[in-house]
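Next up, a chain.

===
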Amino acid sequence: MIKQYFKQALYQLKAQPLLSIISILGTALAICLIMVLVLMQQVQTEPYVPESNRDRMLHVKWMTTYEKGGSKDDSDNGPLSLRTARECFRALKTPEAVTIYTIYSSMQASIPHGTAFDVDVKQTDEQYWKVFDCAFVDGKPFDEAASEAGLPVAVVAESIARALYGTTAVVGKQVNLNYAPYTICGVVRDVSTLASSAYAQVWIPYYSTDIKDQTWYEGIMGMMSVAILAQSKDDFPAIRLECERLRVKYNDGLSDAETIYRNQPDTQEVFVVRKWANQEPDMKAINNRRMITFVLLLLIPAINLSSMTQSRLRQRVAEVGVRRSFGSTRKDIMWQILFENLVLTMIAGIIGLIFCFVFALFFGSSLFESSKLSMLNSAPTVDVLMLMHVSTFGYALLFCLLMNLLSAGVPAWRASRISITDALSNH
């Protein structure tokens, strides 16, 4: 029966080519627009190199400090100091790894007697390379000994290596960062700015600079953020409980201040929408707005496509009457119409998804640009691996099914309710 429905659907597409093309293109554009919005969300939340472990990562972007016994509204808010990050998070026992890293900073990079240019530098520790799976093309990351000793070593992106020396085989060579000499120990593939936690163009140990001394409020606040890699996402509750115990212990050692994390550590989904240090994101409101957007983008084209479906069915009223007279039930008629329209919708969905991928690949730098990214020295880049996820195709299939129900549901129901006599007399 399904095979017969499929043949009938293809026949109907060929029988009314103009109407079929209009319906397919209309549906394809609708699916394309929705999937662009989905991809904009997925590049921030779905796993891909070098943030392949996003599903089991937690983040602490910043924190709040206020006077003991005082009001949380009268507080300092921002990144953590190195001391706070180490005592409250690096001391965790439950996770697989915990890394501390700085917010972005721009430095002048050059080779000896060469021309300097700006690069985005991240100062971090040896655990960083366990949390983020950057792909090394030469050399290796700096180890714990180099990190704790603050040795002047650096890992550079391959584009920076080429800009400095014209090759990626640069391990052991020197790069000057703000005119301070560093020895290159490794080269990694360029990291997209869309992988915001992992992104940099140069990575160095934070003990190799004076960043640890840039603190305020009794040395509690500073320039650091934290990424936590759990053994499994099932460990998230245990990690949060351990974080709270360490926070209480840390506060007991402070004389006049108290710290809170405002429901951090965050999952990746919450992390990317947390804009303010003193305000928690309203995930319910954010998800509701996203759902309303999807509904509107599905409903408006579905209404237009429904009228086209109804127009096609008017020419098949006699066919419905003949089938009913030979024993087909109303349910059979309705399912046939829905299946035939589903074939059209699926064809349109595939075209729409291809349009979406092509648009994202060729116009990704504009599509994913933001005010935050515009401050960096590298534009957003998109590759196929960032877009190809099982969930991507799952969302596309779901939207196709919903579009089919919205555009063909009512016409199919009305066609199935036509009496045999009325259907045949209209022939």
